[in-house]
């Protein structure tokens, strides 16, 4: 396979599969904060994704990027140059969004419980508002706790 064929194949793969875009700088900061607070949901292991990226399409297949995995399989061993990185980035992105979704679900569940307590008369409006703020702070992605 010559260089122009490889370049064309890579460009086509990026267009067709939507190459993995890493977390943006804000998301990276939030990811690190969540990890430091022990809240990160790890559906995919970024280190394993990087290691598997050395195999033909391994990092991409592991993270569910099937189209990109096929292209990386076809252009292997050249894909060793990017698949470990894109695999790790995809795993982090999966973990970030899984964590955000879990936190939102937990927050909503606690809000509903708090609403029921207010409706049942177990809480005053002032205590309700205080507890609501505490829940918001607890599940804030940017929280520094």
Characterise the protein shown here:
- The chain is mainly α.
- The chain has one domain.
- The chain is 68% helix and 0% strand.
- The chain is built from seven helices and no strands.
- Helix 1 packs antiparallel against helix 5 (66-74) and helix 3 (46-52) runs antiparallel to helix 6.
- The protein is rod-shaped.
Topology:
Elements: H1 3-17, H2 25-36, H3 46-52, H4 58-62, H5 66-74, H6 83-119, H7 125-138
Helix pairs in contact: 1-5, 3-6, 6-7
Give short descriptive properties of this protein.
0% strand, rod-shaped, 145 residues, single chain, mainly alpha
Specify the overall morphology.
Answer: rod-shaped
Number of domains: 1
Helix fraction, binned, reads 55-70%
Query: What does the largest sheet look like?
Result: none
The low-confidence parts are: none
First-last Cα distance? 53 Å
Strand content: under 5%
Secondary-structure element pattern, one letter each: HHHHHHH
Q: Kindly name the structural category.
A: mainly alpha
Can you give the mean pLDDT?
85
What is the rounded Rg?
21 Å
Task: Give the beta-strand count.
Answer: 0
Helix segment tally: 7
Give a quick precis of the structure.
The protein is mostly helical and about 140 residues long. It is built from seven helices and no strands.
């Amino acid at each position: 396979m010559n260089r122009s064929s490889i370049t064309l194949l890579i460009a086509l793969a990026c267009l067709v599969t939507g190459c993995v875009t890493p977390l943006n700088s804000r998301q990276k900061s939030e990811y690190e904060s969540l990890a430091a607070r022990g809240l990160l949901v790890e559906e995919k292991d970024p280190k394993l994704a990087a290691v598997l990226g050395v195999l033909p399409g391994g990092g991409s297949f592991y993270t569910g990027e099937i189209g990109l995995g096929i292209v990386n399989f076809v252009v292997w061993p050249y894909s060793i140059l990017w698949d470990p990185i894109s695999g790790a980035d995809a795993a982090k992105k999966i973990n970030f969004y899984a964590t955000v979704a879990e936190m939102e679900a937990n927050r909503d569940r606690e809000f509903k419980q708090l609403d029921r307590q207010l409706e049942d008369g177990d809480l005053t409006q002032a205590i309700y508002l205080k507890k609501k703020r505490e829940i918001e702070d607890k599940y804030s992605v940017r929280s520094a706790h």
